[in-house]
Structures are given as C-alpha cells and as structure tokens.
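I'll show a sample.
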Amino acid sequence: FSDVPSMCRKLEDLSVDEFMLSGFDSGEEDDCEDEESTQQKGKMKKPAPQKTSVKKQGKASEHKDHLSALKSKDPEFYEFLQENDQKLLNFDDSDSLEDEDEDEEERMYHRLPSQLEEADDDNDEVETGKKDLKKPKEGTKVTEAMIENWRTGLRKEPTAKLIRDITQAFKAAVATTKGDSEELCRYTISDSAVFNSLILFCIKDMHAALNKMLKLKDPEKGQKKLILPSSSPRWQKNQIDIKMYIAGVVQLLSSLTQSTVVAAVLRHANQMVPYYLCLPKQCRHFLKSLIKHWSTGEETVRVLAFLALNKICRNKQDIYLNPVLRQMYIAYVKNCKFTSPNTLPMINFMQRTLAEMYSLDTQVSYQHAFIYIRQLAIHLRNAMNLKKKETYQSVYNWQYMHCLYLWCRVLSTIYPSEVLEPLIYPLCQVIIGCINKVWHCILQQEDFNKKPGRMSIKPINFAVILKLSKTNLQEKAYKDGLVEQLYDLILEYFHTQACSIGFPELALPTIVQLKAFLKECKVANYCKQMRQLLEKIQENCSYITGRRQKAAFGVGDVTAVAAWEKQVAEEGTPLTKYYSQWKKLREKEIQLEISGKERMEDLNLPEIKRKKAEEKKADKKEFKGLFESDSDDDDDDDDDLFKSKGKHAIYLFPIFVIVSDGDQKKPSSSKGKAPKKMLSTELKEVADGDEDMVEDLELSDQD
C-alpha cells in the first residue's frame, strides 16, 4: 500500500492503449518477487536485519514525501485527512505500515531465531510434532532441623527472606493436604511429623513475627479499633508473601477434618483478621470458609468461626456486613432442615448468633428481614389459596418453622427499635395464619378425660416433632406432654408481662379458660398442674392491683407508667420469682433429656389395674388364710413359709404374690382355721392369673 500514490501518478501519464499493452506489470511487482526470492533464500541463510530496517525506513520517508505533496495537489482531501486520520499524516520512520494481524503473523512465522537448533537424529518426537516437556526440579525437603532454625530466627529477628522461606514451606504443606502434588513449590513435605511441626510452628509464631517485622504497635487496652498492617511502611515490600500465607491458611481450613485441629487453626486465623481486612480477595474466601464452619462445624469450631465473622463485620460493616448476613441466613436455612435432640442446640446457637449479627446495623437488617418475612408470607398465602400438596409442604416443614423462630428472636432481641418495629405486625400475621392451619405453632384442643388407648414407653419431645402419628395421639405421653407444653408456654408468656401495669386485664381471658378447664377435667395430675399455674397468675394479679392502687399518676402519663413498671421489675413480682426457680429446674430436665439420661417416666414399669369390688371380695376369700392367725401355731407356720433351705422365699402383697424360683418346702399343718397349704406352683398360678391386668394408673404425686 505504500506505493499506491506513485502507481497512481504513473497510470495518469498512460493512455488506455498503453495501459492495456503494459499487461498490469510494474516495477513494484518485480521488487516484490525479488523480496520473496530473498526470503526463500533467507531460510537457508541468516538475513541481514540492518538492510531490512533501512529499506523500511526508505519506504516510510517516501510515503511521507507523497503525503506532503498531496497538500498542494489536493488541499481538500488533505484537510479531510487532518480531521479524520491524524495517524496517517503524522507518520514516522519508526512506524510500521503493515497491518497488526500481518505483523503478528510475521513475528510468528517469518522471524528467525538468533541461534539455530541442531537436528537430533535420535529424537523422533520432534519430527512428529511432540514436545519434550522438562520435568520440574524437586524442591528442598523440609526437616525438623530447618523448622527449628526458622523458629530461632523468627524469635530473634524476623526478616523478609526468612518470612518468604517459611511461607513457601507452608504453601508446600497446604498443597499436600489438597493432594496437589504437581504444584510447583520450593520445598516438599514428605513426613507427617514434619507437617505437624511446621503447621504448629506457623500458628504459634507467625502472627507475632509478622507484627514485629512490620513494626506494628500492640493495641492499647480497651482499644476496639484494629491496627491494620497496611499502615506500615514495610507493607508493600512484604505484601506478596503475606498474601500467600493467609491464602494458605484458608485453604488449610477447607481441607482439615479433625475438629481439634480446625479449632487451633481458627484461633490463629482470628489473630490474622487485620491482615485479611487489608486484602479483599483473601478476605472474601476467608468469610466463605468461616460461614461454612459456623453452620456445620463442631460446637467449639462454630463459636470460633462466629467470633471471626463478628470481628470482620464490626470493622468493615459497609463492605462485608450485607453479603455476610445474606450468606449466613442461607446457610442457616440449609442446616435446619432436620431437627433432632442432637441438632436442636446447634440450631438455637445459629439463631442467637445470627440475631447478634443483625443487631450490628438495623438499617441493613430491616432490608433483609423485610424480604425474608415477605417470602414466608407469600409461601403461606399460596398454601392457603392453591391448596395443593406442593404448596402445603412448602410451609409444613422444619425450615419454615425455624425461620419463624429466627425472626421472632431477632425482633425481640433488638426491641425496642424504631427501624424494625414495623415488621412485628406482618410477622405476627404470618404466625396467626399458621395457627389457623392447625400446624406445629399451636396445641389442639383435646379431651383429657378420655383414657389413653395404649401405654407409652417414652415421653414425647414436642420441640423436635413436627407431626404426630395417630398412634402417638392415643398414648398417655401425648396428653402428658400437651399439658406440660400448655403450662410452659403460658408461664413463659405471662413472665414477660408480669411487671406490666395492665397485667390483671391481660390475664383475665386466660384465668377464665383455666377455670373452665379445671371444672371439666377429672384427671388429678392435669388438674394439679393447671391449678398451680392459675394460682400463680392470680397471685401476680393481686400484687399488681395492690401496687397500682397506690399510684398517684393517671393512665395517660406514659413516662410515669414506664418508671413504675421499671421499679416493679427491679423489685420483682411473685410470678417472676417463681419463674426463675422453675426455669432452673426445667433447664436441668431438658439437659437430661438431651444427654440421653432417662427420667422416671422413661422406665417401662408395669402399673396395676385396680380391681372391682366383686373381684376384691373373691381375692379376700381365696387369700383369707394367709392373713388370719387365730391359733398359736401361726408363728411356726410363718417360720416354715419364710425359712426354707433354698435361696427363695414367698413375698405376700395385698393384691398380688411374687414367688422366687426354687422348690418350696411344704409348710407344716396348723391348727384352727388355717386353710389347706398351697404349693409354689399353685401360688405362681394365682400370681400370674388373668385377673391382674396391667394399665395406667391415674395417681397424684402424693399417691
């Protein structure tokens, strides 16, 4: 293209006949052919780069002269080029006129190497196009002596070179946990003892050594704001090594399985939080790993992960709080799908810690709570309107229930809050909607006077049961647990309102319902529990009424009412004092259930059915001789009954007789009204007769 202007001028001088006779040949084509032949010869001979550059420079200068001549011949076209293509006019000798793609191809295919390789007859792979890859050199093997030298050097004076060596060795150790044997590392770890020593050395000494190398000051007592390592003038110089080390810590956390080792590494990672805050990419990976351990790890691991999460979000709320809350909520929902006595404490832990995280910023928390409570409401609306199995199951599951529990805990923990207070009403409406569907949120009305249809082996733990089977509904444990749940929930609710100035009016509907229950129920145990609850509520009503009568302010004085309630709460009420004692006993009982220890109700003990009057009279006639002693020889008979040669005896009870194994000696005959003596086999038949039916006894605690 560089010779286009000169070609145009030559063609202008030719006539049509002369042009046709020329055969489209020109001197430039000859030059091109000469260049091609020269390049073909250059494959066998080394080209002279200087001549090529001079030729290029000559063409560039010639093109520049053509453009300057264009200014006088065609000023309008030259002005057009000035406005639209300055690069063409500002052409330099050093510039190339070749297209970029052609230049790249020329560099790839037409540039000869500075030194030609000699052909190797033995290597057949070169001719077939296969490349001989060089094997990487094996790294230096880490030993216990090297680790000890590093430890001594760190404690004496940590240097950048020493930190780099330790970081490279730590990288190699992490690569072994991932199974990444092909990763290039300066060092290699082949012994498990060396691996343990290196990891232990790093988590113990690296944090202090890095602070010393960067000359970071120790935070003062009570100082909440962290000192970031990026404030050190040495940070830029050592940033690459520190980045490699803390990235290795995150990779190590993801590959470890033993909870004790994970806990030790998490403690070290918690110390390194200021370094993560200076490196956003590594911090994001660290947060992802922390959320995983917080939601799935062992108890100690969960706590340490939460402490690190809380520490990061407190210091960089504007960057990390919003995404961390979202990921923690998703992890919470995923891990509360199944509920059992073993998983329930972990679910409660996630609820409490997540509520604490939401309390860091109520504005951000409102956005999350609004979206997720709205989702719960949409699921409930679909279940009510569509009435399909899929929509019904989308609400009738543990995840939905635990989400309700979570938002109740969040709103009650942060209360009072002007920002979150508008969300209380919609959440209550969702819960009421669940109550109307008769799900786990409520306890159904039951006929407590109806005798249970079957014996119950163990008590029902309502906290981990979403749905009861028809068999469970017929058990005595179901009714017992139902009464316990009523007692616990009513007591807990009124404890929250025990110091309210309007407690008597608030408790009135419940008092009416409890009195109606006591009037209808005939079971002593159930009546005793409900009567005790009623008495405590009425006692608290009387106390609040008495204190209220002495007040000198009106109902409309909100400030005075709040001060009055605060004073009553400090002094305590009868219900609050009783609740504190009851709560301690109840928590101990729950801990026993969680630990798997059986309560007295769990024991499968037989209970005796009380017989009718006619059956009792028949038993008295049959066993009359065993209880009457009108003759003087009765003492001898007793000796014969209770003193026998074998290791056995006969034990007499008012209703039934238990006979131990062994042959019974025949008792001697007695005078008077003594009945005919009974053999042990006959006594067994009496004891194992059909008359003794085993079923539940309705006894009070005193019985």
Summary: The mean pLDDT is 75. The first helix runs from residue 4 to 13.
